[in-house]
Write a structure and sequence with these properties.
The chain is an alpha+beta fold and 194 residues long. The protein has helices at 58-77, 84-103, 128-150, 159-171, 177-193, and strands at residues 4-10, 13-19, 23-29, 34-40, 47-52, 108-113, 119-122. It has five helices and seven strands. The strands form two sheets. The protein has a four-stranded antiparallel β-sheet, with helices on one face. The chain has a three-stranded antiparallel β-sheet with strand order 5-6-7, with no helix packed on it. The chain is rod-shaped.
Length: 194
């Protein structure tokens, strides 16, 4: 069952995340390739890493490219010159450079790290708040997954094993100190009743 879907598109790049109760389906497309894979919730970490590439030169490149292409266009429209084809090609190349620079302008990503797999999100697409809300939903689903997996026990589960599981959940801030005590108490009572 799908819990939530989150789509991001930036220039030629596209990312789609579909959150399920035990994994995330990730689809990544860019101008060169398409990837589709699953990431298990137990393989993800809870930590966030922000990465921003230097975007300060991009506006300068775009401005200069557009300005030079406009100058080339003015040169072509002035019928006094014979080399209008060369200038036209040069102006077209500069315009393409401006468009590509605009579409590929820098990197501003958020990574979920700390596990064996990482997830990468555009930080501000569609907006930063939406990205944070989706990451919060992933973390909430992870915590539910870990609780369901590690709180259950059977007649062969020892007290030591169960304490280690609960301690791991508490250390990961998946359960609180009160929940830890209550779950351990319930386990000890069930062992006495066996």
């Amino acid at each position: 069952m799908i819990i939530k879907e989150f789509r991001q598109k930036k220039g030629f790049d596209y990312r789609n995340f579909v959150l399920y109760s035990n994994h995330i389906n990730v689809e990544v497309k860019n101008a060169n390739q398409t990837s589709n894979y699953n990431v298990k919730l137990q393989d993800l970490g809870f930590d966030l890493h922000y990465h921003t590439a230097n975007k300060s030169k991009t506006p300068i490149i775009i401005f200069c490219s557009i300005l030079l292409s406009l100058m080339c266009t003015a040169f072509i429209l002035d019928e006094k010159h014979e080399s209008t084809l060369v200038v036209g090609v040069f102006g077209s190349i500069l315009l393409v450079i401006a468009i590509v620079s605009f579409l590929r302008s820098g990197t501003d990503d958020v990574y979920m790290v700390g596990g064996t797999k990482n997830l990468s999100f555009f930080r501000d697409v569609p907006n930063e708040q939406s990205v944070k809300e989706f990451i919060t939903e992933i973390k909430k689903t992870q915590k539910q997954f870990f609780k369901a997996k590690y709180i259950t026990y059977n007649s062969r589960t020892s007290i030591e094993e169960y304490e280690v599981r609960l301690q791991w959940l508490k250390d990961g801030e998946i359960i609180s100190e009160d929940e830890y005590g209550q779950l351990l108490h319930n386990f000890e009572i069930s062992k006495l009743l066996e």
